[in-house]
Amino acid sequence: xxxxxxxxxxxxxxxxxxxxxxxxxxxxxxxxxxxxxxxxxxxxxxxxxxxxxxxxxxxxxxxxxxxxxxxxxxxxxxxxxxxxxxxxxxxxxxxxxxxxxxxxxxxxxxxxxxxxxxxxxxxxxxxxxxxxxxxxxxxxxxxxxxxxxxxxxxxxxxxxxxxxxxxxxxxxxxxxxxxxxxxxxxxxxxxxxxxxxxxxxxxxxxxxxxxxxxxxxxxxxxxxxxxxxxxxxxxxxxxxxxxxxxxxxxxxxxxxxxxxxxxxxxxxxxxxxxxxxxxxxxxxxxxxxxxxxxxxxxxxxxxxxxxxxxxxxxxxxxxxxxxxxxxxxxxxxxxxxxxxxxxxxxxxxxxxxxxxxxxxxxxxxxxxxxxxxxxxxxxxxxxxxxxxxxxxxxxxxxxxxxxxxxxxxxxxxxxxxxxxxxxxxxxxxxxxxxxxxxxxxxxxxxxxxxxxxxxxxxxxxxxxxxxxxxxxxxxxxxxxxxxxxxxxxxxxxxxxxxxxxxxxxxxxxxxxxxxxxxxxxxxxxxxxxxxxxxxxxxxxxxxxxxxxxxxxxxxxxxxxxxxxxxxxxxxxxxxxxxxxxxxxxxxxxxxxxxxxxxxxxxxxxxxxxxxxxxxxxxxxxxxxxxxxxxxxxxxxxxxxxxxxxxxxxxxxxxxxxxxxxxxxxxxxxxxxxxxxxxxxxxxxxxxxxxxxxxxxxxxxxxxxxxxxxxxxxxxxxxxxxxxxxxxxx
Length: 729
What we know:
Elements: H1 2-35, H2 48-59, H3 63-66, E1 82-88, H4 92-103, E2 114-118, H5 124-132, E3 140-144, H6 150-156, E4 167-172, E5 175-177, H7 181-192, E6 202-206, H8 224-229, E7 238-241, E8 249-252, H9 253-266, H10 290-301, E9 304-308, E10 317-319, H11 336-339, H12 347-353, E11 367-368, H13 378-386, H14 402-410, H15 414-419, E12 422-432, H16 439-450, E13 455-462, E14 473-475, E15 478-484, E16 502-509, E17 512-513, H17 516-528, E18 533-535, E19 538-543, E20 549-552, E21 555-556, E22 566-567, E23 571-575, H18 576-584, H19 591-597, H20 601-613, E24 618-622, E25 627-629, H21 645-660, E26 672-679, E27 682-689, E28 698-700, H22 718-722, E29 726-727
Parallel strand pairs: 1-2, 1-4, 2-3, 6-9, 7-11, 12-13, 12-16, 13-15, 18-24, 24-26, 25-28
Antiparallel strand pairs: 4-8, 5-10, 6-8, 7-9, 14-15, 16-23, 17-25, 18-23, 19-20, 19-22, 21-29, 26-27
Helix pairs in contact: 9-10, 20-21
């Protein structure tokens, strides 16, 4: 009995000593930071006054609503809504190492709940340990599965956010964290996540910096310092990477909920729901991997984490490459030297990493794609285009084949694509045939459309297969992707791509510039008429018989009362699913005719829509500003190839009618016009008769720098521009 009492007393003394040691460490760290505060003013997130001032300045009354519920500042850092989720499976030493590193971390007084998630049939010794484990920084809960769920369920079900402000650090048991990992998280949040205008693609913070890539074989070795210097003269210690991290990362609530919903679709009915092919990636072959599905979302929607870039890949977490689901006991492909990185153990490293100006913006950080290739600086890409020089790469064939089309459709899955699409923005698909003399206009238009806050991405369909195209870049945080085609066809302008993640797609020629106010109005009108093809360039149809007719480009103002029949692809907005239908469905029989004549792909699309819907889909939206058209003067426009352009289009039109079984009476006519009126912050619309339209709605432009002809003028000045009784649209 005396021995038992002595053992209990010794245990109490040991626990008290550990607690006192932790207090000493915490106080010592705070004193150290306080001593160095003159050199690290931006790191004083634990200072109550500094934190509160920043909160009021950045959050405001509408902060949470404006960023989709992602406002994260509730005042002091110890009130930050962060929790830790630990996933363990039968590895007691690994779990002990992780929990010990967490206890030794500096949480600067924050309350941080800890959840430990265990697989079914865990050893009794491990269960006893986690139950007795004391967590001094907040509440602790242990979750034990009754039946085996697998790694995907273990990770994804570890956290379901209680609110959109909640964040979680996801840690598997083979991970170990630095004592400063929490301070790293708070520093990034303070700098980049407090603004209501935060980039929605920013979905978390990585604690780990990888040494090798996982998506290609052989695995490339990363040197992020040299990679980032390709676009930036300044050595960056923080960067953006479109790759999810499974070896220590914090994720935001909105992304985690989206990931859970997405994985449930991909795994429905006990198997993966169809195909999702990321070109060049081997992640599709990974089994029982939640990260595979996160990679699909990151790749398609452009999500990214903020990563540290420190010497020798020093990180705020490391992986010990324990034997488990994806690492075999005698693995020769996974070596510790490639995956186990040194932990940050010096506070001065953290201080120098987060030493930046308060004006540093998230979009100014370098961005890498999922393979570790940098998005090029737009200034570099612009200068390259204007110089007429594009980087060399493998040339593709100039002719399209059925095999190529079939390959595209086989790797594309609309059921999955539909799940990643949003409705609050739209994608711009700009069709471009590279010629040096058209570079100036291309640069102007890409920059112009990227300025719109409603634009999710800009895709440049690169039709010239003999000219290598630039790599991806960004303009004012808007991703710009140049999509080089494997064959030359006008059908390719109806781009089918899993990275188009908006329901609305604005298709535009590379010589058409639409005022951003009119572009916003077009999108607002499309949201009301989403089954239509809305645009600014209607065209007419003149019946000759029940099965034949003429394509008409210009109608005399006195003869156009019946309305219009088609909407040109010069500038139109449609649902993205109709692009898939054209490339892989009802539009396929018309592709050879388009390729034969290099013409009339827009008419084929309109007739396909007419057949699908049972009514004419075209809907003309009257712009408030003139649409600028550079095609009249700039070399390379298709409509200037010959004087029989309209005759060729009429010939194609009659063939399309025969293929789809449409008559002339099916193509006449739409007499409605949508007129938008600004009622900030939205638009109101009214319909009126087409015969009421008398305004000239486009300006032919000689040059992008013209000060006379090529400029946006107010609508009330249009009457002075017309001077003709011909309605030219």
